[in-house]
Task: inverse folding
């Protein structure tokens, strides 16, 4: 790490700055041309032979070459309906956790969706993740009063002695703005709190209490995790999680609202 910090990256002097064109969602049949190219180059998963045959019949599978001019009327209608209905279906389904404990939700199959195409689409939209053995990402979305998290309130997450997230590599908590899904600028430039956070103070019994608030707490900044001013959620990251984190026998503590 010390060697890495000795390097500095800089662009050429006077390099022109240009704005990239925003990525537009695929709303035309051209999408299936791209999908056709991908299907031809990617290996098949076990059990996908039948599904690929369906794609071939639709005119865009790996055994055919997609050509809008060669589509039959029924193929064209089917693909146009898919373009219209697919995004709505995905938005309607949403992300369904299979665990929800103490306000923290998670899903155990996200690292290896296999032939679950709806889940794969959800992950493309929401973000790719590792296999659970590598890392898990529980999300804290409500407080101990079963209400959504907001920067208008102050919360505490307390880990009792010996009850910090069981991870062999590291663990951290990161708040994200629920509208933009982005980090929030703050005066102490702290965007996550975890086992690598310097200067954190322990409770008298050896536990660890983390304060979540949009403004600096009266206790000082040592255990402060700055949050957005509006609606937000907290993502916990456990890298190389231990058995108890994977099988659900360990539960993250609730996000406790501090009453005025």
Result:
């Amino acid at each position: 790490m010390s060697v890495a910090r000795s390097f500095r990256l800089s662009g050429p002097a006077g390099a022109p700055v240009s704005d990239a064109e925003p990525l537009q969602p695929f709303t035309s049949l051209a999408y299936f041309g791209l999908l056709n190219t991908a299907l031809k180059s990617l290996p098949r998963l076990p059990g996908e032979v039948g599904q690929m045959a369906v794609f071939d019949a639709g005119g865009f599978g790996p055994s055919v070459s997609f050509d809008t001019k060669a589509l039959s009327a029924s193929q064209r209608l089917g693909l146009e309906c898919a373009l219209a209905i697919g995004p709505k279906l995905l938005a309607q389904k949403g992300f369904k956790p299979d665990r929800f404990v103490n306000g923290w939700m998670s899903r155990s199959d996200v690292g290896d969706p296999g032939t679950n195409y709806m889940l794969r689409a959800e992950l493309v939209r929401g973000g790719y993740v590792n296999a659970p053995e590598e890392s898990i990402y529980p999300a804290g979305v409500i407080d101990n009063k079963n209400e959504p998290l907001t920067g208008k309130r102050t919360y505490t997450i307390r880990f009792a002695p010996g009850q910090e997230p069981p991870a062999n590599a590291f663990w951290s908590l990161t708040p994200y703005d629920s509208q933009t899904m982005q980090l929030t600028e703050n005066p102490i430039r702290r965007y996550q709190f975890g086992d690598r956070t310097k200067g954190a103070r322990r409770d008298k019994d050896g536990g660890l209490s983390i304060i979540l608030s949009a403004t600096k707490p009266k206790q000082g900044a040592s255990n402060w995790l700055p949050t957005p001013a509006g609606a937000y959620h907290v993502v916990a990251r456990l890298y190389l999680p231990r058995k108890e984190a994977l099988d659900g026998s360990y539960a993250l503590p609730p996000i406790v609202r501090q009453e005025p």
Q: What stands out?
A: Residues 30-93 form one domain. The mean pLDDT is 92. The chain is about 25% helix and 20% strand.
